[in-house]
Automatic annotation (TrEMBL):
Entry GO MF terms: DNA binding
Endpoints of the signal sequence: none
SMART domains recorded: SANT (SM00717)
UniProt keyword terms in alphabetical order: DNA-binding, Nucleus, Repeat, Transcription, Transcription regulation
Domain Myb-like: 31-83, 84-134
Keyword check for DNA-binding: yes
Protein name according to UniProt: Uncharacterized protein
Organism: Cinchona calisaya
Superkingdom in the source lineage: Eukaryota
Length: 349
DNA sequence: AATAATATCAACCGCCGGGTC
DNA sequence: TGACCCGGCGGTTGATATTAT
């Protein structure tokens, strides 16, 4: 028989000098006077003593059993976010910071999921750290913290005066990249990135030569890769050919190194660099590399679209600063560049 | 030293999905 | 089948700490 929280909470009385909530909020404790605000050391002690002795059981019954004038939700939150013995305190390490950025790129604001990749950290802690630190760093580097894509010059100007973004745009524009056109599908269905994140997008593999293999995300709804809402082509990435999941590096490639990692059991994340030209003009602005069945492989022309060499603008900037630009999910089991975690995300340029 | 502005983070609020009746 | 409860989650708030003026 289920015991209702309201019944359990009935009869509780507020103490003197505390801030109590009456007749509002806390739907589970609507008939109870509950204290709000910061927890006192005495309350913490009561809660810890109760949970270490009896376990929390039903959270709604914890306040009464522990002698607290809080609602069950508040007790649960206090325990999970602050009193739990396995919590890691202190500032986030660089490794943790990278993990947050990497996983956030895949999952978005799913803080609880992200926190699972950081032992001892809570979703609340991760969320606060993101909002107060990481978000600002990304913006300072000209990246949209929501999509992890480049901010447009306008957005960059609006959100931040830092000029790194425009510098990076310039650099990006002469990066040769390989793409593929999906000429067989007219499917423009827009897919939720979060949904895509849990799908096993099939990848088509094309070997261009002995050392370079390209992989195509065949799902035509690859909006997620470059942040566009719907595209009919998908970004290609270059990988060194190898036969296992062992770490490898790209050789003899004009591309900056791509980064990949394994996320959970069923998916893998990675990033690549995208071209700077308008998608609508894609076929005209790419040099055809090869044709393989229905797929046409293109390489971006370095001189296209008015993109000029602007290396000087990047003196002193490490390309690693921008390695986490674009990302995509690929299913596990393919071989690719997997040394992402070896790369430092250098926040300072 | 005083005040204002900004950053940090603990806690709350409201919603949602799953389970039970 | 619908109402209710609970745990969990993400967004937001507000108190406090820190930094700038």
């Amino acid at each position: 028989m289920m015991t209702t929280c309201a019944n359990e909470c009935a009869g509780e009385e507020g103490g003197i000098g505390l801030v109590f909530l009456e007749d509002m909020g806390h739907h589970c404790c609507s008939k109870q006077k509950v204290k709000r605000g910061l927890w006192s050391p005495e309350e913490d002690e009561k809660l810890v003593r109760h949970i270490t002795t009896h376990g929390h059981g039903c959270w709604s019954s914890v306040p009464k059993l522990a002698g607290l004038q809080r609602c069950g939700k508040s007790c649960r939150l206090r325990w999970i976010n602050y009193l739990r013995p396995d919590l890691k305190r202190g500032t986030f390490t660089e490794q943790e910071e990278r993990t947050i950025v990497d996983v956030h790129r895949i999952l978005g604001n799913r803080w609880a999921q992200i926190a699972k990749h950081l032992p001892g950290r809570t979703d609340n802690e991760v969320k606060n750290f993101w909002n107060s630190v990481i978000k600002k760093k990304l913006i300072a580097q000209g990246l949209d913290p929501n999509t992890h894509n480049l901010l447009s010059p306008h957005q960059t100007k609006t959100k931040n005066n830092n000029t790194n973004a425009s510098k990076f745009n310039s650099r990006h524009q002469h990066t040769g990249s390989v793409f593929t056109m999906d000429t067989s599908s007219g499917n423009k269905e827009i897919i939720d990135p979060k949904t895509l994140a849990i799908q096993n997008s099939y990848i088509n593999q094309t070997t261009l030569n002995e050392s370079i293999t390209t992989f195509e995300f065949q799902n035509p709804n690859l909006a997620w890769i470059d942040g566009a809402q719907s595209t009919q082509y998908s970004t290609m990435m270059e990988f060194s050919s190898c036969s296992s999941m062992e770490s490898t590096s790209i050789s003899n490639s004009s591309l900056p190194p791509s980064r990949f990692g394994i996320l959970g059991e069923n998916c893998m994340w990675g990033n690549a660099y995208e071209p700077c030209f308008d998608r609508a003009d894609l076929p005209q602005q790419l040099e055809k590399v090869s044709t393989d069945g229905q797929e046409q492989i293109y390489r971006a022309n370095n001189e296209l679209n008015g993109c000029q060499q602007t290396d000087n603008a990047f003196d002193g900037c490490n390309f690693n600063d921008f390695e986490f630009m674009d990302s995509a999910l690929v299913p596990p089991g393919i071989c690719c560049h997997v040394n992402s975690m070896d790369h430092e995300l250098a926040w300072d340029c």
